Amino acid sequence: MNMVTRYRSGDQGRRLDPARKALKLPFEMIIEILSWLTVDALLRMKSICKKWCALIEDHHFIVKHMDRASPLPIKCQYSRKHDQVVLFHSKNIRCMSRVAGLFVEKHHSLPVCRIRNPVIGHVLDLPNAHMDVCRMKCAFDSLTGDAKLISAYIHNDEVGYEVMSIGQDGDWRALKHPNQGLLKKNGKWATRRQFFLTDEVHDGVYFCSEIITDGEDWCLEVQALDPWNECFITTTLPQGVFNGCKRVWVFNWNQHIAVGDIVEQELHVLVLEDLKEEQWSQNKIIVPLKFLQHQPLLDDQVLIPVKADCDELKLRYKGGKTLFYDMTNEMIKKVVYKWFDADLLGFYKPSLVSLKGMRQDERVRHRMGID
């Protein structure tokens, strides 16, 4: 059938095109495009229509966007008091930990604490923590969006823990680990403690290691707290593996707890392969530290193993520089020096995550032009 070209009166012979249908992107493609935008842009996009607003607030979209978000710069300082890099929101507020774009913050001298998402301006004020709190960590389940907050404190020379389910609990709940209160009863005490964050070792588990003595004998004990099940697992380093516990350090070895000691020019490592079964590796791993041939440790120097990730080993001189060591090629890849009381530039991944009970910071709404 031949198509007859139609003309309108007064068109002077011009062809009348068939009515064009408005082009419409599949919603799956819209989701893909939006997932690559910045948080600021997405907050403005929420006002376009209800469907887009619902999408941007959907938990699955938030997780997808969080994986793709580009890191943002953040100022931090190296603290003499804590011998580590710390983040400060203001003069009196210290960032205790970060997860999923959320900052767990505490007043430097008061038990006042909160959780904050700086890019969307949401804040959750928390009940006061224990006066002696020294560590706080938020465990975040990306599948459900649930969050639990763990705080650790040292009181009367013993470690204590508190937990809070965000959006469910109105206050902190005390958790008692198996041997709490037993050290002094048995005439023992801890001479050194180390804490581990949940996002670095066995995701979702909070670790504390203690070197315990009664004045003569020593042992190293690792306490692991699973915040989701609110249960403890305690394991002890086998006796005789190292020549005493005074020089050993507990650190992260490829997502497993490990104990290490630097003997002359080598790092000796024993790995906790299965926490629940309390199974340690049968043999020690020996890592040659060839740079010590030319830079031997002085009597007052302490070199601490911090983390092993594949072939890279991170070591830190106590109170000094940090080394990144290539264990395969046996050479130093990078050296980072510490600058006390000077601003440093770090990075973090932003997110749209908002926990139940968070309130909007009106200053951020005004800055972003959100109605």
TrEMBL record:
<dbReference type="Pfam" id="PF08268">
    <property type="entry name" value="FBA_3"/>
</dbReference>
<protein>
    <recommendedName>
        <fullName>F-box domain-containing protein</fullName>
    </recommendedName>
</protein>
<dbReference type="Pfam" id="PF00646">
    <property type="entry name" value="F-box"/>
</dbReference>
<dbReference type="InterPro" id="IPR001810">
    <property type="entry name" value="F-box_dom"/>
</dbReference>
<dbReference type="InterPro" id="IPR013187">
    <property type="entry name" value="F-box-assoc_dom_typ3"/>
</dbReference>
<dbReference type="InterPro" id="IPR036047">
    <property type="entry name" value="F-box-like_dom_sf"/>
</dbReference>
<feature type="domain" description="F-box">
    <location>
        <begin position="19"/>
        <end position="66"/>
    </location>
</feature>
